[in-house]
Specification:
6 strands; six-stranded mixed β-sheet; alpha+beta; 4 helices; flat
Length: 244
């Protein structure tokens, strides 16, 4: 009896999850989804420091009695982000268009015929009566038509502030930018992270996404609309396990 109950629970568990949805949604019943508290990005559980191969750091040359600082874009002070904790603006403007179309047509026809007019001196009529005039005849035909087409059009435009979380040995900056926007019961989450060079930061303290190495750009969210558009756990499980 206990074994039968255990088997029944294993069978009903996916259906319970699909009917109840995510268990974390229970905390949002009757109110909009809660926003993530503002915190240090390096204290997140999934945060991992970045280690990249870099050349040895060379100290900039200095001139005696010179008021100019190497690498500065202003005579008195450089307003760009340069230290851990400094802020800068990340500009994301992705416009990706792709159009592929492939067509192929192949056709092949074959016809083979073989007869035995004489066999070890036997008369032809005997061979014809036993095996026929043409003892071997084959016909084959093959045709193949294939058409493939791929169209993709993506456009993402974002502008958000980020924080320098690391200064690598070669002077490059590790930038992490996060932003959350809640409208009614839908929460939009934006995440951008990557490695930028100090010289790629513009004079207005902005950097574009195409200047970021190892860029990770995420635009998603959670809420009632997202829950309706996401298949339930039970359905996702069956889609993976069912072979048909």
């Amino acid at each position: 009896m206990m074994r039968r109950s255990a088997r029944l629970m294993l069978v009903l568990l996916p259906w319970c999850l699909s009917g109840c949805g995510s268990l974390t949604r229970l905390s949002d019943l009757g109110r909009p989804p809660s926003m993530t508290p503002v915190s240090d990005p390096t204290s997140a559980r999934d945060y991992r420091p970045i280690t990249m191969p870099t050349p040895p750091l060379q100290p900039p040359p200095t001139d005696v009695a010179s008021l100019w600082r190497p690498g500065s874009r202003a005579f008195f002070k450089d307003q760009r982000a340069a230290q851990v904790g400094d802020l800068l603006t990340v500009l994301v403007d992705i416009t990706d268009n792709a159009d592929f179309e492939n067509n192929s047509t192949t056709s092949r026809t074959g016809n083979e015929s073989m007869g035995i007019p004489s066999l070890f001196g036997l008369k032809q009529q005997i061979v014809q009566s036993a095996l026929g005039a043409a003892s071997l005849s084959t016909n084959s035909a093959n045709a193949n038509v294939a058409t493939g087409q791929i169209k993709r059009n993506e456009s993402v435009t974002l502008r958000l502030a980020g924080t320098i979380t690391q200064v690598l040995p070669n002077g490059n900056f590790v930038v992490d930018a996060r932003q959350e926007v809640r409208v009614n019961s839908e929460l939009r989450v934006l995440n951008v992270s990557g490695v930028v060079r100090p010289q790629d930061i513009a004079g207005d303290n902005t950097v574009t996404h195409d200047r970021m190495a190892e860029a990770r750009i995420s635009y998603g969210g959670r809420g009632q609309m997202t829950d309706l558009q996401t298949p339930r756990y039970g359905q996702q499980l069956l889609d993976v396990l069912l072979p048909f």
